[in-house]
Amino acid sequence: MGMQIAPSLLSADFANLEAAAASIPGADWLHFDVMDNHFVPNLTFGVPVMEALAKVAQQPIDAHLMIEDPDRWAPAYAEAGAKSVTFHIEAAADPVKLAREIRNQGARAAIGLKPATPIDPYEDLLTELDMVLIMTVEPGFGGQKFMDACLPKIRRTRELLSKHGGEIWLQVDGGVSAETIERCAEAGADVFVAGSAVFGADHPDAMVSDLRSRAERHTCLR
Ligand code: DX5
Ligand code: ZN
Q: Of 36, 34, 11, 15, whose CA–CA distance to 24 is shortest?
C-alpha cells in the first residue's frame, strides 16, 4: 500500500455530505469523526448519518470514534458499513475483545492515541490491529495547529510496527497540511487525515493529490 489520504468530513458542509464526498474522488478514505460531547467537548454525528453516507459515497469510510464506552458502541459502526473503525485506547475497557469484534464485522480495527498517550504500553496489542492513529492535535476540533511534539511518537510507533512485521498502517490526524505532511511521512506515517487543508482548499481534489505526492516524496518507507 502506498501513501493514503483520508480527508476529514469534519470540515465539510454537513448539509451535503454526499456532495462533499463527490468533490474528492481521488481520496482513499472518507474520515468520519464521531464525537459524543463526553470524550471530547464537541458533538458531531453517529451511526445513522454514517450509514446513509456509506450508501451513496464511492470511497470507503474510516470512522474515528472520539467517544466514551467504545466497547459498547464501536461494533455498530462496522456493522453499518465502515471499512475501518478506530476507537480511542484511553476509553476502551477491553481493547482486544473490541478489536476482534470489529474485525469479525469485516472492518479494519484501529486504536487512536491522544497526544499525551504513549504507544509503548500497547505494543502487545499490535497483533490485534490493522492501524494505529496518532493524534497530532488534542481531539475535538478541526483547524488546530499541528503539534511537532508528537513526531517522536510517530517514529517510535513505526519502529514498533517494523519490529512486529505485517501490514499495520500508521495514521496521523490533526493539523496535517501541505506544510506539515512531509514531516509526518519522514517520521513513518502512511495514512494522512486532513480536514481543513482539503475542504478549505479552492480545489479539494487537487489538494488530495498534492498531499499524496508530498507524502510519497518524503516517506521513509521504501
Ligand atoms: C479532530 C479530528 C480530526 C480533524 C482534523 O479531533 O479527529 O480528524 O477533523 O482536522 P484538521 O485537518 O483541520 O486538523
Ligand atoms: Zn479524526
A: 11
